Amino acid sequence: MKVLPSIQSPKDLRLIKKEHLPTLCEELRQTIIETASKNGGHLGSSLGAVEIITALHYVFNTPEDKIVYDTGHQAYAHKLLTGRQAKFATIRTKDGLSGFPKRHESEYDTFGVGHASTAISAALGMAVARDQKKENSKVIAVVGDGCMTGGMAYEAMQNAGLLRSDLLVILNDNQMFISQRVGALGKALTKLLTAKYVQLAEEKAANFLKRFDELGNNAAKLAKRARSILF
What is the CATH code for 4-179? Predict the structure, then answer.
């Protein structure tokens, strides 16, 4: 028996037993593949975010708790779980569902996205507004590593660190970018990080960390991911 047809809102999702969630994720993927193969769209990013989106709607009390997707092209599972299954076949067609979250389309679409690197800033604004109204809801920003190359993301993190509002940022580190990094900063960092002395230092540091068994290996992996995101 299929799980997805029984879900008309995240409230239905939260009634499902945890052991049924992997089956639901497979059904979400199959639906996305079938629809995108006909209508086109952002297939890879949406498939890669299925578990993240399912987990967020399962754990948090949306729409009271607000989820902001950076760029928004990964949110097909979000649409399927928030009452738009019946219309999902119309996505990216005339008078059909938008390929991105749209505020006029659903109360679960908290921000009109489309451009990269805006989610943390938008989510911070929502968190500050919530604090001003003395509410207790949660605000979550879902950001890909490609979006972390934009300056607006760092400006938002700077402000978030200063304001100390309750804000959760989830980094979807799938190591995927739509194009190569550009700009003077990117070139300078690439030149620095490809220098032989830097590579030698990194190799020695990684070998040192690996001496500490699992903890050291995890630290080395974390450093490698941080390097790929920032540089």
Answer: 3.40.50.970
Q: What is the DSSP string of the chain?
A: --SGGG-SSHHHHTTS-GGGHHHHHHHHHHHHHHHHHHH---HHHHHHTHHHHHHHHHHS-TTTSEEEESSSTT-HHHHHHTT-TTTGGGTTSTTS--SS--TTT-TT--S---STT-HHHHHHHHHHHHHHTT----EEEEEEGGGGGSHHHHHHHHHHHHH----EEEEE-----SS---SHHHHHHHHHHTSHHHHHHHHHHHHHHGGGHHHHHHHHHHHHHHHHHH-
Cα 223–Cα 227–Cα 231 angle in degrees, nearest 5: 170
59-62: long-range contacts, CB 8 A cutoff, minimum separation 24 = 60/138, 60/140, 61/137, 61/138, 62/10, 62/108
The structural domains of the chain, with segments of one domain joined by +, span 4-179, 181-231
- By CB neighbour count within 10 A (0-12 exposed, 13-18 middle, 19+ buried), where does 173 fall? middle
pLDDT digits (tens, 9 = 90+) for 140-182: 999 987 777 788 888 999 999 999 999 999 988 766 555 566 6
